[in-house]
Design a protein that fits this description.
Blueprint: H1 2-11, H2 23-43, H3 46-53, H4 59-97
Helix pairs in contact: 2-4, 3-4
């Protein structure tokens, strides 16, 4: 159950009926998906895995691991930046809909 809640949070699902998305929200969601893709590239980096599975040790393996980690962290930062912007956009949209 906790895993489902975490996935819903990462996807940006709030549990309320969906309203039509603005162009900005669509753009932000697409950038979030790009961040996911960059993180996956970092995790499944073929250069790292090839060197690891071929038996590389020491500095070479560490270099590839650090490189993959940097790519993953860049993807995480990219994802988080646009996820925060999307949340702020949704909060702004809710405040505009509330009657004064």
């Amino acid at each position: 159950m906790l895993g489902k809640k975490i996935l819903r949070f990462l996807r940006g699902e709030t549990g309320i009926p969906h309203e039509p998305l603005t162009n900005r929200e669509i753009n932000l969601k697409s950038n979030i998906k790009i961040g996911y893709g960059i993180m996956l590239i970092g995790v499944f980096c073929p250069i790292f895995w090839f060197s690891f599975l071929s038996g590389a040790r020491g500095n070479e393996l560490m270099f590839n691991a650090v490189h993959s980690g940097i790519v993953f962290l860049f993807g995480l930062l990219y994802f988080a930046t646009y996820r925060i912007q999307l949340r702020n956009e949704q909060v702004k949209k809710k405040h505009e809909e509330l009657p004064s």
